[in-house]
Amino acid sequence: MAVHLQREIKRLKELIFNLISRVENNVKLSVKSLKDRDKKLAQQIIDSDVEIDRMEVDVEEECLKILALHQPVAIDLRLIIAFMKINNDLERIGDLAANIAERAIFLSSQVEPSMLIDFTDMAGKAQIMLRKSLDALVNFDLKEARLVCSLDDEVDQMYREILRNIKEEIEKNPSYSEIYIQLLSVARQLERIADHATNISEDTIYMVEGHIVRHRDKTCQSIE
User: Cα separation of 76 and 64, whole Å?
Assistant: First the structure.
């Protein structure tokens, strides 16, 4: 029984690691499509989101099958529960990447004001958080997971700063309001990617330690 369970868990890890690779790549390419005003690349990301949805369903079905057939306990049970939650976060990140790609298509045909808002730092920080959260998941690295939690405030502050800048630009150039609204949406998608990366790190900590750290300080320390 234990041998069969471990074989199923190994397969589950392969499925979710493949999903991780696809989602992380889509985030990277969505930011690139925005920066390069690449409509073709953006459309490819949008089209590929269907595959991410399919992969998410595959992971969920595998989790449910293991729970039903093997009734795992302790670390194996926590792993299945954490993977089910992380699976949902990954699917949502894929959706957010597709949303950024949709904004990239719109902005690719617009004029210069779309270049007045610089997403470089925010996009870079969100991608760092995502990369570290996924590394923490793959390696069961609690130090890396807690580092991701500590970075979330930085992305939130970047979002607030971009929001303030966009409000100022709309006041100065109201005829470009639609462009700035789309740019604000990009910032919001990046902020949400960082939130989901934090969720993944929190669930990794739960998986390893058995502590729920959603209601925690910014280092994801558990509340005793």
Answer: 13
Question: CA 11 to CA 18: how far, in whole Å?
Answer: 11
For the whole model, what pTM was predicted?
Answer: 0.92
Residues 182, 111 contacting (CB under 8 angstroms) = no
In 3D, which of 203, 206, 177, 205 has the Cα closest to residue 90? 203
> Which two three-digit tokens encode residue 154?
């930085």
Interatomic CA distance for residues 206 and 194, integer angstroms: 19
Sketch out the chain's domains with CATH numbers: 2-209 (1.20.58.220)
CA–CA gap between residue 195 and residue 92 (Å, rounded): 11
Can you tell me the distance from the alpha carbon of 126 to that of 195, in angstroms, rounded to the nearest whole number? Answer: 9
pLDDT tens, position by position, 73-122: 998 999 999 999 999 999 999 999 999 999 999 988 876 655 567 888 99
3-class DSSP state for residue 193? helix
Residue 222: is it exposed, middle or buried by C-beta count within 10 angstroms (0-12/13-18/19+)?
A: middle
> What tens digit of pLDDT does each residue of 39-80 get?
999 999 999 999 999 999 999 999 999 999 998 999 899 999
- The answer to whether the beta carbons of residues 129 and 151 sit under 8 Å apart is yes
User: Rounded to a whole number, what is the distance in angstroms from the first to the last CA of the chain?
Assistant: 35
Spatial separation of the C-alpha atoms in residues 70 and 9, rounded to whole Å: 11
